[in-house]
Amino acid sequence: MIGKILKTMRREANLTQEDLSKITYIGRSTLSDYEREKTDINFENMEKIANACDYEIVFINKKNKKRILTSQNIAREEI
Fold first, then answer.
1. Distance between CA 46 and CA 32 in Å, rounded?
2. What does the pLDDT read at residue 76?
């Protein structure tokens, strides 16, 4: 499922895998592997791709709907 999301974000940003590779410094073949779900993506690379495509990763608590955005500066003590 994550591969489809990555591919959708990239396409909506009108980026080729080559373009995205140059922006994120992630190899084009690695991006292809992520999109085809041949390789698991780590969170750091997922965030790089999301940012390059003008997306933001958001965590939503199911119970209280509290949102945490990756762009928020969260103090280490809170984690």
1. 13
2. 44
